[in-house]
Amino acid sequence: MLVFPVAPKGLRFDRPPFTPEAVGADVAEPITVTILANDTETEIEVEEGGLLRDALLEAGLDVYGTVSRYANCGGRGLCGTCGVRIREGAPEPEQWHDAASDRWGYPRLSCQIRVTEPMVVELVEKVVWGQLLPD
Q1: How confident is the model over 9-23, as pLDDT tens digits?
Q2: CA atoms of 114 and 92, how far apart (whole Å)
Q3: pTM
Q4: Among the CATH numbers 3.10.20.30, 3.40.50.720, 1.10.760.10, 3.30.460.30, which is that of 29-123?
């Protein structure tokens, strides 16, 4: 028997594409996202409304573990392997997994975060699939 998760009240599994016009912006200015990984700090410019996962991958930064780099859901918010920690500028969670991670403190899915303001993001090291190394 297949069981599909149900989104908590007020949260959605899917979202319409983000357009700056939808929030009244005339021109989308690039937004600076600071990435913390392996004791280095990197800044990337992301188009307003762009998905964090896509921007990280385009910049050559890996959000996946060894196996999940090749076997993941492709940014649909289903596999839970593209987790990152948002240190500053975290947007409100819109997806059910992000709401749960926000509540219990585990990494948020980068594929479910639209960049709408500057933020500081920490890439977390993963061992197998989306598994995190123990603290």
Answers
A1: 555 555 565 565 555
A2: 10
A3: 0.71
A4: 3.10.20.30
